[in-house]
């Protein structure tokens, strides 16, 4: 049971602005760690407040905000950014 990683349009723009090593670390994390799990919630943290229902992953100083779609086995990446600005 492998999960598919999909990216929202706004994420693709933000990722292009990152330096190549960071971009690669995030891509490797999502495609090799998160997608390979039977349940992506194992290594993520649920968000609260306005972002309730979304999940957070940590890669260095960057945060990856995702929506987990159980019925289609898709992890939709909604936002990626530096930890100081990603929740705004």
UniProtKB/TrEMBL annotation:
Keywords: Toxin-antitoxin system. It comes from the Bacteria. InterPro entries: RelE/ParE_toxin, RelE/ParE_toxin_dom_sf. Transmembrane segments: none annotated. Pfam families: ParE_toxin. Belongs to the RelE toxin family. This is Translation repressor RelE.
